[in-house]
Every structure is written in C-alpha cells, then in structure tokens.
C-alpha cells in the first residue's frame, strides 16, 4: 500500500483520518496550547505555609534564662538533644512546675507565651525561649523514579518543591519528567517539570504542605516509533526529555534515506489506537528543503506517535519490478521448456 493510500485511502478511511499540514501557523497554535497546559494551578502558587505547628514526636529545647535547672536537666555539658523534651503521642509534654501541657498544634510562639505565663507563678519575670531540635511530626513522601524516596521532614523553614526534588534526586535514566504528580488534600496536580524549568524555575515558587505526596513516573512506556524510509527504523525513547521534536526523532533514526525516501511524505500518525472515539491525526511535513527541518524542530512528537517516511516513486517502481521479474523469469523458463519439448 502506498503512502498516498495511507493518508488518502478509501472514503471509509478518510472518515477516520484527519490530515494536517505542519505549518508555522500550526506550530504557533500548538505552542500557545502547550504554554496553557504547562501553567501551574493558581492554588499551588498562592499557598503559603503557616508557622510551624508542634506535633507528636517533635523534640523541643526550652530555655529559661538564669534557670539552668529548668533549661538543662541532663546537665549543662550535654548537647541540646539530650536536654530536649519529647512531645508524646497524645500531643503533651511534661514541664517542671507546670505538669502535663498539651502542646500539639501550637506554634513555637504560642508555646513560648504559654510557658511564660504559667512559669510567672513560680519564677519572677521568666524569659523563655523555645526551639525545635528534632522535627519528626510532619513529612512529605516520595515515590517513583527518585534516587532517594525517604520521607522529608517539614521544619520551621518552608520547603519548596524544587528543594524537595533536589534532595530526592531524580533518576536520570528512568524518570518521566512530563507528569510529576503532587497529591494534596485528596487532589492530584499534574506538573511538567521540563516546562517548569523552561518557565524560569517556577518549581521554587511552589511550597510544600505537610502530608503532600510526590510521585514521579517512569519513562519505560514513552516511545515514538520511526518507520519507513529512514536509515535505522527504531523506537525512540524520551529518556528525561519531555519535548522531543520531529527533527530529533528522525535524527536518532539516522535521518531520511537519501536514496529511497520521498521528502514530501514525512508523516506523524497520532491517535490511531483510539479510532472508535476520535479520528486519527496525520501530520504531514514536506521535508524536501533544508528549511523544512526548522519546522520539524519546532513540532513536538508525543509518546505513541508513529513517524512514517514514504518511499520515492522510483523506489516503489523498483520494488514492483523486484516482485514481478522473478515471476516473469519463471514464466519465460516454462515457456522455453514447452517450446523445446514440442520441437
């Protein structure tokens, strides 16, 4: 079947295929749509972390100036952590003169003021300072193509998405950067990390919230299939690249075969696996001139696309001959045998 048959075909085929020529106007509209899809949801950009709230498992170091017996019960020579006070699982801690105090959900300043007020009954004008020396109650979790998937603690210093990803370390050989999922409060936000980086590092503007879950999928199913008259027909993987261009895909396959290819018949077939719901789109690039590859470099292929390069007319004719000549030779031999036998 010729490439013309692939695109034009029968009337029935035409109802399932939409032929689109790759032009500067098409690329401009695609870029506008890509910019819109890469936009960060406004609720992620506007979120600002609240002051840190103390929770079960945190360790607090409480200083009461001029009262070492309250500040360092384990001895002044000990470090802060041994002198720290652990918040129990029910959110309480014990403090001298005060007893059990429910601190779960308090900010550091809330607790400082509460301790100052309660100690004022026993200590004249107490000067109290509170620090968290062990953050253990609030975390962000990771899953997928990261080198480190250990939970990261939320501290009094706000944590951004960019910082968290940097600590988790992306696996460069396996990660699919185009669909990082940030799960928060029952909602999934899908983010394209490459688009964020192209947008001047907007990941640094997204603050994480306790309980956030970050999933980075693997790229093992992300391939474009380059077929037809190219040097090396192959499946081209995206690796960590999320915006593979048509020119790049053809380049990885060795480019168009200079002898057998028809530069006018470079097609990108998209959506052929869902013809029952929507017609497939076939994008055509006329690559007979070098300037056409500038268009191809701006056209982004997607996972599952089939890039097909048609054969030149003389190539199709030669293939027809290669199929006909053996049959003609057999017929000629049979005719000669019959003629010799009759004479």
Automatic annotation (TrEMBL):
Location relative to the cell: Cell outer membrane
Family: Belongs to the BexD/CtrA/VexA family.
Gene3D superfamilies according to UniProt: Outer membrane lipoprotein wza domain like, wza like domain
Domain Polysaccharide export protein N-terminal: 49-132
UniProt cross-references to PANTHER family, sorted A to Z: POLYSACCHARIDE EXPORT PROTEIN GFCE-RELATED
Name used for this protein in its record: Polysaccharide biosynthesis/export family protein
Organism: Dyella lipolytica
Highest taxon listed in the record's lineage: Bacteria
Domain Outer-membrane lipoprotein Wza C-terminal residue range list: 312-330
């Amino acid at each position: 079947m010729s490439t013309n048959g692939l695109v034009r075909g029968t009337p029935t085929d035409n109802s399932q295929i939409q032929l689109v020529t790759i032009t500067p106007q098409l690329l401009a509209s695609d870029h506008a749509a890509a910019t819109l899809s890469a936009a960060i949801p406004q609720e992620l950009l506007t979120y600002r972390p609240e002051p840190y709230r103390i929770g079960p498992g945190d360790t607090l170091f409480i200083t009461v100036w001029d009262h070492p017996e309250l500040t360092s019960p384990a001895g002044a020579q000990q470090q802060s952590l041994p002198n720290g006070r652990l918040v129990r699982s029910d959110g309480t801690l014990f403090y001298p003169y005060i007893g059990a105090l429910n601190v779960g959900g308090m900010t550091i300043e809330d607790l400082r003021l509460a301790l100052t007020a309660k100690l004022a009954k026993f200590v004249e004008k107490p000067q109290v300072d509170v620090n968290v020396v062990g953050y253990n109650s609030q975390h962000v979790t990771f899953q997928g193509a990261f080198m480190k998937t250990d939970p990261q603690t939320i501290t009094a210093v706000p944590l951004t998405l960019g910082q968290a990803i940097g600590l988790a370390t992306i696996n460069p050989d396996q990660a699919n950067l185009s669909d990082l999922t940030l799960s928060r409060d029952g909602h999934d936000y899908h983010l394209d990390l490459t688009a964020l980086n192209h947008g001047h590092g907007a990941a640094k503007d997204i603050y994480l919230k306790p309980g956030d879950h970050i999933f980075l999928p693997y790229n093992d199913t992300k391939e474009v299939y380059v077929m037809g008259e190219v040097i090396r027909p192959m499946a081209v993987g995206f690796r960590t690249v999320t915006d593979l261009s048509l020119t790049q895909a053809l380049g990885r396959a060795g480019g168009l075969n200079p002898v057998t290819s028809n530069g006018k018949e470079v097609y990108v077939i998209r959506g052929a696996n869902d013809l029952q719901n929507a017609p497939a789109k076939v994008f055509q690039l006329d690559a007979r001139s070098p300037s056409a590859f500038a268009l191809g470099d701006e056209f982004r292929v997607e996972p599952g696309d089939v890039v097909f390069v048609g054969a030149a007319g003389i190539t199709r004719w030669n293939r027809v001959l290669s199929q006909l000549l053996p049959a003609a030779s057999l017929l000629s031999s049979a005719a000669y045998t019959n003629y010799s036998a009759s004479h």
